[in-house]
Amino acid sequence: MKLIGIVLIALGLAACQSHNEEAMPVTGFNSDSWKTMIPQSCEQYFDGCNQCRRGPSGVAACTRKFCAEYQQPACLESGVDLSDYRVVYYCDGGKSFSLSYGVYHQGEEDVVLNQGEVMMADHQSMSSMLLEGEALPGGTRYTGENVIVELMGNLASVSKGGLTVYANCQVVDS
C-alpha cells in the first residue's frame, strides 16, 4: 500500500514539474550569452541586462541591475559590424569548429545567413553546414541534417547521429 502511495505522489510531482516548465518563458539568453555574441572589438555593449564598457585592458565594467530574464545582447557602437561575426570553439581531444553569423565566407563566395541561422564549419572534416536555431532554457540549440550544436553560455557540444562528437567546447576569441 505504501508503494502505491509513493508512486502516486511521484506521478503528481512529475505532472506539476512538467506544467511549471511549460509556463516558464524561454528567451534563450543568459548572463553568459554576450560572450559569444559580442566581438572583442565592441567597446560599449548591452549584455542582455546591463550596459557595459570595455577599458583599455579589455576588461568590462557594467551596471549592476538584476534581471530575472535576459534579452538579446547587442553592441551599442554604430561602427562595429555584427552582421559578419565568427565564433571559434576548441573542444576536448584537440577538436574545433566555428559558427558564423550574418555572413559565411567560403573562398571567394559569401553566403548571407537569415536571422536565426548559423553556418557551422567543422575543422576536422573540412566541411560546413547550415543550422537553424531555437531557444533553450539558458542557451540555444542549432540543428541541421543529422547535427545538433548546443550552446550554454560560453560552452558548446556537438552531436552527430545522436552521438556526442565534440564535448566541453569553449569559446576562443576570434
Topology of helices and strands:
Elements: H1 2-23, H2 34-37, E1 44-46, E2 51-54, E3 60-62, E4 74-75, E5 85-90, E6 96-101, E7 103-106, E8 109-112, E9 117-122, E10 127-136, E11 139-144, E12 147-152, E13 155-160, E14 163-172
Antiparallel strand pairs: 1-2, 1-4, 2-3, 5-6, 5-14, 6-9, 7-8, 9-10, 10-11, 11-12, 12-13, 13-14
Structure description:
- With 174 residues, the protein is mainly beta.
- The chain is 15% helix and 44% strand.
- It folds into 2 domains: 26-81, no CATH class; 85-172, Lipocalin, CATH 2.40.128.
- The chain contains 2 helices and 14 strands; from the N terminus they run ααββββββββββββββ.
- The strands form 3 sheets. An 8-stranded antiparallel barrel has the order 5-6-9-10-11-12-13-14. The chain has a 4-stranded antiparallel beta sheet with strand order 3-2-1-4, with no helix packed on it.
- A hairpin with a 5-residue loop joins strand 5 and strand 6 (96-101).
- The longest helix is centred in the first third of the chain and has 22 residues, at 2-23.
- The termini are far apart.
- The model is unreliable at 3-27 (pLDDT under 50).
In short:
The protein is mainly β and about 170 residues long.
Task: Supply the key terms.
2 domains; 2 helices; four-stranded antiparallel beta sheet; mainly beta; eight-stranded antiparallel barrel; single chain; Lipocalin; globular; 174 residues; 14 strands
